[in-house]
Design a protein that fits this description.
With 284 residues, this protein is of the alpha/beta class. The chain is 29% helix and 23% strand.
Amino acid sequence: MPSKYSAVLALGVSFLTLTVHSSANATSINVAVAANFAGTLGDIKSAFESDYPGDTFVITSASSGVITTAITSGNSPGYDLFLSADTSYPATVASAGWATGTPFTYAKGEILLWSSTNAGSSLNVSAGLESLVSGSFPHSLVIADPSKAPYGVAASTVLSQSPWSISSGSLPCCNVSFATNIDNTYTAVANGTNKQGFIAKSKVCRYDASTSTYTFNATGNTYSYKEYPYSDVTHPYSQIVQNAVGVVNSSRTTAQDTVLANLISYLTGSTAQGYITQYCYLLP
């Protein structure tokens, strides 16, 4: 079986792999996760390994579309579990014969229009997305590539509506650019490459259950933002329902099967759901 890294190179993409050192006796599996959920899963990982001593997993993060291609092309990275940013990509994995069970919902997300003043931007987006001038946005806007990232689909849906009426087929255009995934969309705004962007709400939002309050400076940036909830009557988009599915991996051992079963169960339990709500996701 090709190594994880040779498979990544073969796909011509760059994956972020987060590895935490575990004890020599730990049994490890590989989890592929949509970029928006990687930070949340990192916190869940620490709690899971505390509650299941000897169980561990490696996190590989990319866009849902890129992960799906890797799996359905032969799963040479050796993924055991796929956490997507939508329902369609896990369904594709299942229909292609690469699922070990039925896809299940673990979280629901929303987009947020965001601008970082740390990068020298003076753009205030609190009133919402600006109007087009001569057919283009006055300030550069970045969204995740809709062909690979469900959060990009949500953003392009907003752009297709009045007063912008930019069809998805004409993007990128009119001072709108694409990032390869939703984390890179955030980075493009945070470093000043783009003045504004539609990012995952979970990237900058945190919920404190003890006070029932939300804060929007999780990354330490100064910023302006405008929430675009999926249920907004003015600019609605399909709710971002995030499904997960176990993945066929012929090299997985019986011990790894147990870790996979434990992790799937854990993701829908109260501890994981506490982290999911902390990152401002909605629960299934």
